[in-house]
Amino acid sequence: MKRIVTYTLFFLLAGCMLFFSLRAYGEAKAYEDATMKIVKEMTPKSLTELQLREWAQKLSFGLYTNEQRQKLERLRQQKQLHKAASRHYMHWVMGCLLLFGAGYFFVSLRVFTFFGAFAAWIMLFFGLITPILMVTIHKQVAYLGDVVLSFESKSIVGSLVKLYDHGDVTVAAVILLFSVLIPFVKTFFLMFVSLFMQSRFAHGIVRFFKVIGKWSMVDVFVVATFLVYLSVDKGDISRAETGTGLYFFLAYVIMSMLVSLSADRMLHRAK
Description:
Layout: H1 2-40, H2 44-59, H3 67-102, H4 109-129, E1 133-141, E2 145-154, H5 156-165, H6 169-195, H7 202-216, H8 218-231, E3 238-242, H9 244-270
Antiparallel strand pairs: 1-2, 1-3
Helix pairs in contact: 1-3, 1-4, 3-9, 4-6, 4-9, 5-6, 6-7, 6-9, 7-9
């Protein structure tokens, strides 16, 4: 009976985590879309048209309404709402993750390893597809104001595609291997170990991923390097903003380390 209750609670917790992750991802994408729409309204052509409409409104003593300005303000409000909603759902995701982590002290190592690996898989999946960085390059232009020169929002998967398209196949392959393939395979085999802990392959699998684990942290180093580079002041014309995907990926790294520790202890006790 206790086992059924434990499994039910973990399945419900995993379902809640998946639900809140989907909502956080949806709001992050909506925030990205709203930002892109604002960027389109801040090109030299659009800002010139906006200034002309502003003058038309002033000269008509308010008889003419600058709908473009109102549209821009609505987009900015929507952008902030989506950003706040994404953070709100991400807080719930982290709350679910903390409950998963707390399970380490209250359930068997085998149960925790399986469900912890499943939670890590969810975090990894959304960490790869959710925007991780948004970079805007802009410049102050006389009479027009803040003109956006370029805007990019990339997830890890999107960055891989861009690197490949630009011919950086080697870099793309390294990041694909250590940021996507190895984490997915590692998570899958941790679940396998929890189900078949008596298998003669179980100990070898854990030892293999303990050795390769230090190399799979290259992805974190790559992300950190990009963040440092993009945060450097370049004459106030470049602005980098971290996305929700970064928090998903960080959550995966933490959960993966905890599950690896749990699997190692589980197999040592099974000897």
